[in-house]
Design goal:
By secondary structure, the protein is mainly alpha-helical. 63% of the residues lie in helices and 3% in strands. It has three helices and two strands. Helix 1 packs antiparallel against helix 2, helix 1 runs parallel beside helix 3 and helix 2 packs antiparallel against helix 3. The longest helix has 38 residues. It is rod-shaped, with a radius of gyration of 32 Å. The chain starts with 24 loop residues before the first strand and ends in a 7-residue tail after the last helix.
């Protein structure tokens, strides 16, 4: 007995080429935010931290608007964390100094010591 003839297989088509990867650009504001955050902890304590906070928020807004072409959200967040942490530590330090010397003045006043000889 002879084998039945099968119809010829259809030609195999190659899969379509993959789309070209979109090159995403790192936000310059995010890089500036990170650099200012590091400078805020080293050379420019107040100015660097405020610049890091401002640039970090601007960079995150820019990245959200252009999500398909921009990246660097982690850099912007790192700059924000460095900036805000230094601001919080500065405010807490000033508060601690004021409360210490204010409490010392209250204590000396309660003990009847005026600080004069």
């Amino acid at each position: 007995m002879s084998e039945p003839l099968l119809p010829p297989a259809p030609p195999v088509q190659a899969p379509p080429p993959a789309p070209a990867p979109v090159l995403r650009q790192t936000s310059a504001m995010a890089i500036v935010s990170l650099v200012l955050g590091v400078l805020g902890w080293t050379l420019l304590p107040l100015l660097g931290s405020l610049g890091a906070i401002i640039c970090g928020h601007m960079a995150r807004a820019e990245i959200r608007r252009n999500a398909a072409t921009m990246e660097g959200d982690g850099l912007a967040i790192a700059g924000l964390v460095l900036g805000w942490s230094l601001v919080v530590i500065t405010v807490l330090s000033i508060l601690a100094v004021v409360l210490f010397f204010g409490g010392l003045a209250v204590l000396l006043g309660a003990l009847g010591m005026s600080g004069q000889f």
